[in-house]
């Protein structure tokens, strides 16, 4: 079995690109685990809420708000992983008839445009986080900005993946290696 760091070995032509890919792989791995935690917490909260409501005739005041928060975070953390591997809606009816070289150049251009849009969303999200920071959630003493921070993180992470695509850098694996159990 090869060490984890060797599995994340970058094959970029320059040290800057290699470090960029390693940093992106580390961000991907961290995001991957954060998605697992968010989904697990959401599931536990909803299950506990159902149990307390029907078995104990009571309710957890913050369960709805917290489960919604975990759902939002899970979704926004997962979006960059979809962008990384090209799992997004696209209509290529016209593009598929173009020569391969032109298709590749068009894909690069679209990646740069997408990266610019994500950078813009990142900037706008910073303003939204700043404006919502003083506002608290109704049932918890937590800032309501945590919902907007998820958008901020998603925009920054997505922008990095789109830049990597525009530079035609191969993404490194972000999922942990498979260790026994059922085959994937």
UniProtKB/TrEMBL annotation:
Coiled coil: none annotated. The complex comprises the extracytoplasmic solute receptor protein and the two transmembrane proteins. GO terms for cellular component: plasma membrane. PANTHER family: 2,3-DIKETO-L-GULONATE TRAP TRANSPORTER SMALL PERMEASE PROTEIN YIAM (PTHR35011:SF2). Belongs to the TRAP transporter small permease family. It comes from Halomonas heilongjiangensis. InterPro entries: DctQ (IPR055348), TRAP_DctQ (IPR007387). Pfam families: DctQ. Part of the tripartite ATP-independent periplasmic (TRAP) transport system. One of its GO terms (biological process) is C4-dicarboxylate transport. Its main location: membrane. GO terms for molecular function: transmembrane transporter activity. Keywords: Cell inner membrane, Cell membrane, Membrane, Transmembrane, Transmembrane helix, Transport. The chain crosses the membrane at residues 32-51, 71-97, 109-130, 142-164. It is found in: Cell inner membrane. Residues 42-169 form the Tripartite ATP-independent periplasmic transporters DctQ component domain. This is TRAP transporter small permease protein. It is a multi-pass membrane protein.
